[in-house]
Description:
The structure holds two protein chains of two kinds. Chain A is mostly beta strands. Chain A has no helices and twelve strands. Chain A is globular, with a radius of gyration of 14 Å.
Amino acid sequence: AQTVTQSQPEMSVQEAETVTLSCTYDTSESDYYLFWYKQPPSRQMILVIRQEAYKQQNATENRFSVNFQKAAKSFSLKISDSQLGDAAMYFCAYRTSYSGGGADGLTFGKGTHLIIQP
Amino acid sequence: EPEVTQTPSHQVTQMGQEVILRCVPISNHLYFYWYRQILGQKVEFLVSFYNNEISEKSEIFDDQFSVERPDGSNFTLKIRSTKLEDSAMYFCASRAHEEKLFFGSGTQLSVL
Lengths: 118, 112
């Protein structure tokens, strides 16, 4: 079974600075998807960014980018120019690719609580 | 942007009662899911549903749980006899083929 580990229960960053949230995962599959979800106090789950394992290029969405290291099974999220609205829980998640079969559901990490200091 | 809609936003029930949580997935989506999140814990996969049948379910999804797509728009999760430990936020999600997963805003279930 796949596992997702987020080793940082909480991170704090000054507004306008850059922060990196770490995520590692364990899988025997070669084809899969990785995601970062943001959960603000409203508890809505909002997709921040996703990465296909077969793509070597790191995904980028505006101020959010990932550092995907497939061999190391590492998938960190970098938030540049942090804003107060970025304060939330961030969950890393894994899903097998559809062509690979197997479990269809997302496997989540335990989350990192990101605090933005004004 | 299209949304997954969940009702009610908060459901309170007595232990042993049946509850039905309702979801309206995005209209052209094909795959439907239920997840739950106990307060302070990670989000856990419950079940996936495709082509009018369950395609995958987790160990959490025991005989007390069932899902149904009674018409072309609704997707429901039923808990037959609720337990205290069923108290959680329940998220519905949907996706099109090989697309990103869209989550609803959740139903907070409180079992007393």
